[in-house]
Amino acid sequence: MLSNLATRDVETLIHPYTQLAAFRETGPLILERGEGVWVYDTEGKPYLEGMAGLWCTSLGYSNRELAEAAYEQMLKLPFQHLFSGRSHDPAIELAEKLKEIAPVPVSKVFFTSSGSEANDSQVKLVWYYNNARGRPQKKKIIARLKGYHGVTVASASLTGLPANHTDFDLPIANILHTSCPHHYRFAHEGESEEEFSTRLAAELEEQILREGPDTVAAFIAEPVMGAGGAVVPPAGYFPKIQAVLDRYDVLMIADEVICGFGRLGEMFGSTALDIRPDSISAAKAITSAYAPLGAVMLNEDMYQAMLDESRKIGVFGHGFTYSGHPVSCAVAIKTLEIYQREDIVGKVRARAPHFQNRVTALEQHPLIGESRGMGLIAGMEIVADKATKRQYDPKKGVAAKTVTFAQEEGLIVRSLAGDRIALCPPLIITEEEIDALFDRLERALDKTLDWVT
Ligand code: PLP
């Protein structure tokens, strides 16, 4: 029996990424408030937020400084756009700050309101760049199967997951996909991580040669894949990929929407995994999710090309009403200040070994085929048979069932395609809370085992 509020929800809302038909029976989990790494439902039941919302609430749920930064900016200048050369202090200061902490030299910053908008902008900027450089045929962008880059038309096309394409008539032209770097699932029998990386880089090179290097403009990748399964790349992967891109003058775009701002124990995932991006997308933890904000950080060469294009055609015809929203920028400035002042990246590094020990220990559970992560992110895969890696019938929804059992245990985690479960807690999580997270998850897996057998 659904509560009054739940019934009103079912009758009024379209929920993103929800099985709309089943949802009419189950109804929503309605959350009311949060504190630290905990969120509370309308009955007052606490849940440990094992996913930091959607990989984003890095500083947890009750940070007064962030709320005050937003409030003060709202009182001072709640809105000012950046169109036609208008500007404001928070956008300037934030762009300076991002340039300072970026993992590679960044020339300019373009703001959006989300990760999808940032990646959509990346696609347009790559096309604009090659038109400016007099290479109108160099337009194809290669993304990866199971990569996740958002849901707007171009960014959903970059995303390599069937649910984002099926019956949406995507992907659009000029977007290609290459293999997913998931060693557990896709390596050949006996193939080492290094060998697997070498093979994937060779496959990418063959793909570029097949398409014609003069038609391939860019490659986009998350350092650690998020929504595609929380997958850590195999050893040596990015340097090998990067060498191929360099040979054919293909830009590297790092999608740092999840990994940016400390998640892997470095300020950016690119540093942690040896990526040398020409352009970077960021969002989520840039404001600890207290306000919507995305950013595209471009190198000098891309900026110079935009200048050339502007001299030729005039106005740079791209931008959102909320590009550089002052309230979001003020919150981001405060977020970055807190990261620095409280050495959040150092804290992640200090907590990661304990977190990852508990991740690895999950492979002892009868249901878990692989459990692996980096920093404070991890993915685990439920299998029916560990020896053969055989999976359960997807229709059974085993990982989704684990999520439901975890909820009973007072833990929020996320199930992903392929019976995978992701963990990505707020970066402020303590050692005791890490133990609480894994104790609850283990109980949920035990219940799943009883249910499935
Ligand atoms: N890129 C990555 C790596 C993401 O994980 C996401 C969202 O989860 C996006 C892009 C899209 O961001 P948004 O949902 O803010 O549009």
Automatic annotation (TrEMBL):
It comes from the Bacteria. It holds the Pfam family Aminotran_3. Keywords: Aminotransferase, Pyridoxal phosphate, Pyruvate, Transferase. Its EC number is 2.6.1.96. GO terms for biological process: biotin biosynthetic process; gamma-aminobutyric acid metabolic process. GO terms for molecular function: 4-aminobutyrate:pyruvate transaminase activity; adenosylmethionine-8-amino-7-oxononanoate transaminase activity; pyridoxal phosphate binding. It is an enzyme of class 2 (transferase). PANTHER family: ADENOSYLMETHIONINE-8-AMINO-7-OXONONANOATE AMINOTRANSFERASE (PTHR42684:SF3). Belongs to the class-III pyridoxal-phosphate-dependent aminotransferase family. This is 4-aminobutyrate---pyruvate transaminase. It comes from Saliniramus fredricksonii. The lineage of its organism: Bacteria, Pseudomonadati, Pseudomonadota, Alphaproteobacteria, Hyphomicrobiales.
